[in-house]
Amino acid sequence: MSDVMTERQALADRPGGTSVPVSLKQARLPRWTPAALALGSAVVGCGVGLAAGLDSRVQWGLIAALLFMAGTFALSAAVEGARQAKDRLATSLVWIAFLLAVIPLASLLWETLARGSKVLDGYFLSHSMGTLPDALPGGGIYHAIIGTLEQVGLATLIAAPLGLFTAIYLVEYGRGRLAKAVTFFVDVMTGIPSIVAGLFVLSVWILILGFGPSGFAGAMALAILMVPVVVRSTEEMLKLVPNELREASLALGVPKWRTILKVVLPTSIGGITTGVMLAVARITGETAPVMLLVWGAKTINTNPFQDAQQSLPLYVFQQWQQGSEASYDRAWAAALVLIAFVMILNLVARGIARWKAPRGGRS
Q: Is the pTM of this model over 0.85?
């Protein structure tokens, strides 16, 4: 800083008094400064927590976060100026908010891995509960995996086309009162509790029409929950397609339906696939509709249209409800499988989106 001020003073002493800065460089903190401040704040925060007798590690972390923000702002203001200090303060707030969101998720994942890995093996994945009492060790989740795959698959087959066609209508064709009514009901359905969807299917499918509990009944309730998510995500993706692409296709004499099929949908297929997978991930963990309509079973049932069937969320709930050490281990292991199932779905969605995305550049 002293060298820069000396150069500026020398320029100011020139004849005519014209001051022209020689260098546009500004004093900056070293790159390792944020890491050093974070480490120092963590040490001081732990020391303050120990000295004050605070038992909660969360309180230690909050003290360290406050010290880190205050230290970053003060040091940056002294070296780089007030403007850069405000920028660093905002960046620190973003990082702290990110850590506050990630830490509980990481803790949950670690707890599930630690407890679920006790009984998770090939036997657990390839056997059902059968006639085994829930209080005894053993058994598996094969019947629950089959039920979850069939129920979620049927719900996706029902909800994905309905949501896709509804979104296409709202974006490409929807005008007037009908489009407004559809939009209103989609917004209302987005906030429907899962138990309400289960009660609706229970009253119509089982009580009025006289069908018994089955995986298909649960799939219909899950489809009701899935439709508004698919509609909203697909609608937003279709709106992102530039109108110039539609106009260019229509100017060449291509019919509108073919423009939608060959231009609009391929352009937005990545976002649409991601939206569908998010909807699938949302319904995969639902328990209330399955409890009302599927009931759960300890044996293998591969027919989703007849008799009770098991699913992973309901299995976790029932095993945890038993209250024994063996049932707790099975519940944690089933929860770990459920998390892995959702993660695989997201990876598949990303792969499909990248595979189907329009190729850039000229051929």
A: no
